[in-house]
Specification:
The chain has 269 residues and is mainly beta. The chain contains three helices and 19 strands. Strands 1, 2, 12, 13, 14, 15, 16, 17 and 19 form a nine-stranded mixed β-sheet that branches. It is globular and about 50 Å long.
Length: 269
C-alpha cells in the first residue's frame, strides 16, 4: 500500500556521534545506515563515549567527510582536517553497554577536541570490521549499527514537530530531535503506528518509539541548555517514565535515499 503524498522532506547525517548534523539532499545507505553516519565518536580517557547528555558543547562541533579527510569546525576555533579513516591499531571503546573495536584518529584531533570542549577527549573511528547489533531487532532483520545510540535510523514527521510547536511558547527547530529522515504528508505522530516503510530500495523496520533525553533541551548552535521540549512533551507524550518523539528503525538493503522520494507505508501482515 502506498500512502499518497508521503515524501522525504529532509535528510540528516551526523558523522561524529553527538556532534552537529549536516542536512544533505541525498545519502547513501550501507550496512551501518547512512554512509558515514556516527562512524566517529568522542570518548573520555577511559574509552567511554561522550554525548550531549553530559557535554552539551558537543553540539557546537560540525564534521564533514570529503576526499578521505574529516573536517572539524566550531565557531571561534580554527578548523581542522585529519585522516578520516586511520590505519592505527584498534582500541576498545564503550558506547552504552557495548564495548567494541575502534581506531584512534590521532593526537591532533584529540588536542583540538580538548581545546573546544575544555576536558579530556579522544576521537575514534569505527572500521568496517566492527560488528555492533541494535538494541532491539523485532523484525528479525539482524542489522548492524554504528556508534548511534541503539538503531540505524530515526524517523520523524514535520507534522509531529508542528503539533509539538503548537504547544510551545517558543517553537523549536527539527535539529533538537536529531532525526536521520524527516517525512511530510501525514497526520501528526502517524509514525508511531508504522511497522515497515519503504523508500526506494530501502526498507525500514520500526523498532519502537524514541525515548527522548536531555539532548533535546540543548540548543544545537550554542550548546545552551533549557527545559523544553521535555517539559511539554511530558504532558502528552509520556509512556511510563519516558517521553516519546519519533520512531526508531533498523534497515534492510543498501542504496540511496533522496529528498523528495516517495515513502510507502507497508501494512503489517
Amino acid at each position: 500500500m502506498t500512502a499518497a503524498g508521503i515524501r522525504v522532506a529532509d535528510l540528516f547525517v551526523y558523522p561524529v556521534k553527538s556532534c552537529g548534523g549536516i542536512a544533505v539532499p541525498s545519502a547513501g545507505v550501507d550496512a551501518f545506515g547512512f554512509r558515514n553516519d556516527r562512524r566517529w565518536m568522542v570518548v573520555d580517557e577511559t574509552g567511554r563515549f561522550l554525548s550531549q547528555r553530559t557535554v552539551p558543547l558537543l553540539a557546537t562541533i560540525r564534521a564533514a567527510v570529503a576526499d578521505g579527510q574529516l573536517l572539524l569546525r566550531s565557531e571561534g576555533w580554527e578548523s581542522l582536517a585529519v585522516d578520516a579513516f586511520p590505519e592505527s591499531p584498534d582500541v576498545r571503546v564503550t558506547v552504552w553497554r557495548d564495548t567494541v573495536d575502534a581506531r584512534p584518529v590521532g593526537d591532533e584531533a584529540d588536542a583540538w577536541l580538548r581545546s573546544v570542549l575544555g576536558r579530556p577527549a579522544r576521537l575514534v573511528w569505527m572500521p568496517d570490521s566492527t560488528i555492533r547489533a541494535p538494541k532491539r531487532d523485532p523484525a528479525g532483520s539482524s542489522p548492524r549499527i554504528s556508534f548511534a545510540d541503539a538503531y540505524s535510523f530515526l524517523v520523524v514527521s514535520r507534522e509531529s514537530l508542528a503539533a509539538l510547536n503548537a504547544r510551545l511558547a517558543d517553537p523549536l527547530p527539527m535539529n533538537r530531535f536529531r532525526p536521520n529522515i524527516v517525512v511530510e504528508g501525514v497526520e501528526a505522530f502517524a509514525e508511531d503506528g508504522w511497522r515497515v516503510i519503504r523508500i526506494g530500495e530501502i526498507e525500514l523496520d520500526a523498532a519502537g518509539p524514541c525515548a527522548r533525553c536531555a539532548t533535546t533541551t540543548t540548543d544545537q548552535e550554542t550548546g545552551a541548555r533549557g527545559v523544553e521540549p521535555l517539559k511539554t512533551l511530558a504532558t502528552f507524550r509520556r509512556e511510563e517514565n519516558e517521553v516519546m518523539f519519533g520512531q526508531n528503525a533498523n534497515h534492510r538493503g543498501t542504496g540511496t535515499i533522496r529528498r523528495g522520494d516517495p515513502v510507502e507505508v507497508v501494512p503489517a501482515s
